[in-house]
Amino acid sequence: MPIDWSARLDGRGYHATSVSRHATESRFEGPVRVADDGWVEGDEIIAFDPMQPSVQLRIKVGDAVYMSSTRRGQPAEIARIESFFAKGVGGDIWFYNTFFWRPEQLRLADSDPWDPRELFLQTSADETENSAAALELIPVRVVDTNDIDSLVDAPHSFFTRRTWDPASQKVSPIVEDAPPPPETMDEDIVLGGAAAAAPQTGANANAANPNASPPPTAQAPRTARRNLQLEKAKERISLLEDQMRAMQLELKQVGILAAHIQALEAKLALVAN
């Protein structure tokens, strides 16, 4: 989301006290509308997606947003919205936000389990540069909308669909809902077994219906035996084919030898005459 904000640069590319200080004022650039009575559901506004102007977005307090400056050459940042307010003659929408710190902006102990792409959020008004005491690890989720990776300027590739869990001290992918199991064909149909009869329950189901498919526990050993027999049959056929090719070669050699013998016999007959 395009945001009007400025950051002071230093030799490392970012200055921690200006980029990540507490409660920075930022202004939303673009069409924004609110309810007649002010806010929508409290601290929430409805804006339009800069990448898809026809798509409306609900932006609320606590959301993590990707912010790119409207000034050329200014770094892009990920920030968390703290509160909204109106400002100026036209009632432009502004908000207070805190920025996430990157590992290269901090002094992190080598023993700490952090990842080079992890994000840290300042939680106090302490503006001392690289003040580790003012930080808290929180889960961060950047939605893969509009190919967010292509929007984040190199060399910073932030986590997408990943979270940091302070309890386990691990970076993990967000768990997705498991897909439904694929539909499978009845094994008896695949193997050419008997047609299935009406389903029955109870201990005497197989006895009442002799054509019913055996339970999966009974089918598994039978299938394994069939597969083993099939593999042995393939090996036997391959061996017979090799033997047949060897016999054909021997017969060819015998034929050549017989032709030579006939030629020699013809020559001997001429000499004898």
TrEMBL record:
BAH domain mapped to chain residues: 57-175
Signal peptide span: none
Superkingdom of the source species: Eukaryota
InterPro entries: BAH_dom, BAH_sf
Single GO MF annotation: chromatin binding
Composition skew (Low complexity), residue ranges: 202-211
Gene3D superfamilies xref list: 2.30.30.490
Pfam families: BAH
Region (Disordered): 202-224
Ranges that cross the membrane: none
PROSITE patterns, A to Z: BAH
The name this protein goes by in its record: BAH domain-containing protein
Organism annotation: Chrysochromulina tobinii
Lineage, highest ranks first: Eukaryota, Haptista, Haptophyta, Prymnesiophyceae, Prymnesiales
